[in-house]
Sequence to fold (779 residues):
Amino acid sequence: MNLVDHALSVLEFDLVLAILAEHCQADLARQMARELRPTFEGGSLAKSLEFTQESAQFLDQETAPPLGSIRDLHHPLDFASKGGTLDGADLHRIAESLATMRALRIAIGQRHRFPLLEQEALVLPDLPALEERLFRSLDGSGEVRDEASPELAKLRKTKRTMAGRLQERIQSYVSGPHREHLSDPIVTQRAGRYVVPVRAEHRSKIKGIVHDTSATGHTVFVEPMDVLETGNALREAEAAERAEVERILSELSSRVGAVSKEISYGLTAAAEFDLRLAKVRYGHALKGCVPHVSDAGTIKIHKGIHPLLDQEKAVPLSLELGTPHAQAILITGPNTGGKTVAIKTVGLFMLMAHCGMMWPAAEGWVGEFSQVWADIGDEQSLEQSLSTFSGHIKNIADALREIQPNALVLLDEVGAGTDPAEGAALAKAILSEFAAAGAKILASTHYGELKVFASNTPGFINSSMEFDLKSLGPTYRLLVGTPGASHALRIAERYGLPKSVISRAQADAGVSEKDVAHMLEQLEVAQKRAIKAQSEADRLAHHLRKVEAEAEEKLAIANEKAKTAKQRAADAVEDELRKIRAEAHELFKSVKASNSGTTSQKARDTVKRLSEQGDKLARELRPKAVERPAAVVGKGSEVRVDGYTQTGIVLEEPKDGKARIQVGMLKMTVDLKHLSVLEKPTAKPRAPQKNLQFERVQTAKTEIEIRGMRAELAMEVLDRFIDESLLAGLKSVRIVHGKGEGILRQLTADFLRKHRGVAEFVESDPNEGGAGVTIVRFK
Fold:
């Protein structure tokens, strides 16, 4: 057994794979799950976890077709490729697999959001013609249908006719005039032939062949001659039917054999896809995560739980191994405190990551390891006559010969099973040798000497399993950075060992040992207090962030209300300005009627003054735009394109100052300067009204062109044009909106119909624009 296989065995990885197999739908995927092995090749970890991440996204966003019909059909496919004829059941299973693979290919590739899975899906066969032929020819049990060929349908019709005729004739002997010659009015079979039981004395009454005689000799079983002829015709029809069925199966098998490799590759790819989804389902069942990829030979676990333990009751594990200051972690503490579970958890997490599986943890990071090796549990071998200690040493010796840099080494009770002094010395040497080889080590021990060794050796860190001094029981919580005491005497006292024995043991223990034990207990208490203080600090920090967020939200609401109030005030002023313009129009009419230059100039000055005052007030009340930093255009950004009302989505990362976007069904490449990122929907601000332009009074235009403008912009331009025309005292104007689909023409008509200054509007003469131009006359 090699190093990896040995580690898989002692870490009970097969039990994890058995649960993974239960989350697969296809039998072929279940087989793959049970045979799954970690891959330690360069780059394989990142690719495997990337597949898992993408599979999780697929499962979250799409509905995968049922994959139960993906079976191990490699042998039948190979047989068909060599010219063999498959039975109907295998051919129908192949048809079901083809339908499932085609549906899977469509489900994966229809959105173009899963590049890794889409690349794998290219292997899935798309053979609709063969699929349809198989389903049309075979029913669910694999029987050939009548529709498989016209000849088969004809033969089966003949067969049914002959079978019906045969039944009629044989029944005529039971119910007809020959009934009195029978010993019993029944029809039976002998050697597959229909016969009637005839009394021996009436044998000559019915012509036919005797197939059998009763034990008494009083009854002979006769196949009447006319029944014999019909039966022979039926046998011939059945033989022809079997030949046609065999021909059809041979033809179908030949068609399958021609594409057998394509189907076989597709089955493997579909089963692998099912296995990837099973990894996600298993991960979700464990409430797990996809670990992040970090530097080689490192593993960091935050609140991880052994996958085979009760996820609701087990105590989470957090540690970081493989960093420069933590190349090796030494766990100490009392028995049954959880040291072995912690070691196995780290080992299983590493194996699961290298198999592309999710971790039952809040978060995690893992880098590529070159190997995994574990020495856990009782390694005694009766066959090789090795003691427990000898078994451990043999395994360690094998590992030291084959260990590679960035291997993960897991040692439970290193150096145990022999003299404590020699065992501790041997354990130090073993740990030092593994560290020198570049391995990352997680080990447990009871030896006090190793605690000192870990404290004094660069790259080694002490840790311990927490022990509750009040209840004298383990909490199963790992404390990194502090060595643990064994608490042997306290535990012995709790379990009823006489006080005299405890006192004698305490007396025999050396002063230095007692001092070290006391010091370790004090360290444990100090670390508990530090952890509690840190937890309280984290809680307070979280509360503070929550209060800050609430305050910011309330402030934002208040600012929004203030902006809304200002906007309403500005709208009111804008309405007043519109009234001023209308009054100015009336004033101009009276000025023209008076023909007085002084009166006209005075009127102009009055209106200009009122307009300037109103505009000034509107500007003061209008909400000021908040300057925001320009958002970065990236893949997936929602953007608005200059000149378009509909928003778009950026399809690719921008290159050379341009971005590929999709607006509705239209795809285009646009300069970034024509794009604006939409961070969140906002109300479109009301277009500000323009100042009265008195300088245009004397040179007002009599025609405006809004053809080709967006509807919103066209109405703003038209509104301004009509107001200026009224102020200038024009009697009529022309509006060129074009014909097109008639949208701008209809909007123009709706606007003019509601305007108080418009007397009427009509369509222009055909020689002057026709339906593309509207003539407006003012009151």
About this structure: The chain has six domains: 3-127+259-285, 148-249, 292-498, 533-621, 638-677, 694-778. The chain has a mean pLDDT of 82.
